[in-house]
Design goal:
single chain; 242 residues; alpha/beta; TIM Barrel; 9 helices; 9 strands; globular; binds SN-glycerol-3-phosphate; binds calcium ion
Length: 242
């Protein structure tokens, strides 16, 4: 059975401010197989990498991402809870792509659209990914299933991951219907091994978020493709011991 690949959730966010160049660089240094990251749109249409729809939790500012231009967003410090990092800025997706280009790592780009509906975000993310020649490296995922369906319709070569939070009875069938290559269940989904097996039998690959140390063995035995974790170094070490 191949080992599950290890992807850093928002970079190596257990050690460095989430979704920042620092956290992504650290994931590279830890030899993670990939990273997961979140994308939203600034007021002036830039793709910015941030998890929440507001900057309140992760910066020294407050307000909605959609209400700031990129220049305005850059004024804030996104070093939340990591005092050792001096001024940490919010990265654009293009900057993150530049960092990873040529590394061979997998990028799981999660499009955050739904709480705030970012009209046209799918076209923008696809255009950038293609322009940078990185379509092969990227999996596009979203809790908004219209968004991943749209990505697939816009470009049939784009790989999409069906991201969900709660249980589905027929997740494999639903994933197939959407044209997904990947299913992204929460760790809670590991309690339903038959669903995982059905997905794999149907040719869908499973990437689980966010997996704690105790569940890594289960992922390995079930044939999970990748696990998403805040601590890629730790997970890798445990998996390599199997
Ligand atoms: O993509 C997996 C995981 O990141 C989804 O949850 O809330 O951390 O974006 P969240
Ligand atoms: Ca995410």
């Amino acid at each position: 059975m191949p080992y599950p690949k290890v992807w850093g959730h928002r970079g190596a966010s257990g050690y460095s401010p989430e979704n920042t160049m620092e956290a992504f660089q650290l994931a590279i240094e830890m030899k993670a197989d990939g990273v997961e990251l979140d994308v939203q749109l600034s007021k002036d249409g830039h793709l910015v990498v941030i998890h929440d729809e507001t900057i309140n939790r992760v910066s020294n500012g407050s307000g909605w991402v959609k209400d700031f231009t990129l220049v305005e967003l850059r004024e804030y410090n996104f070093n939340n809870n990591y005092p050792l990092h001096k001024h940490v800025y919010i990265p654009t997706l293009e900057e993150v792509y530049s960092l990873f280009k040529g590394t061979g790592m997998q990028l799981n780009v999660e499009l955050k659209t739904g709480v705030v509906f970012y009209y046209g975000i799918e076209e923008k993310v696809l255009e950038l990914t293609k322009r940078m020649g990185m379509l092969d490296m990227v999996i596009f995922s979203s809790f908004n299933h219209y968004t991943i369906k749209k990505i697939k319709t816009l470009n049939s070569s784009a790989k999409i991951g069906l991201l969900y939070r709660d249980g589905y009875i027929a997740i494999a069938e639903y994933g197939k219907l959407l044209g997904a290559e990947y299913i992204h269940p929460p760790a809670y989904g590991l309690n339903y091994p038959d669903l995982v097996k059905t997905c794999i039998d149907k040719g869908l690959r499973i990437n689980v978020w966010n997996v704690n140390d105790a569940d890594l063995k289960k992922c390995y035995e079930l044939g999970v493709n990748a696990i998403i974790t805040n601590y890629p170094d730790r997970s890798k070490k445990i998996i390599e011991g199997f």
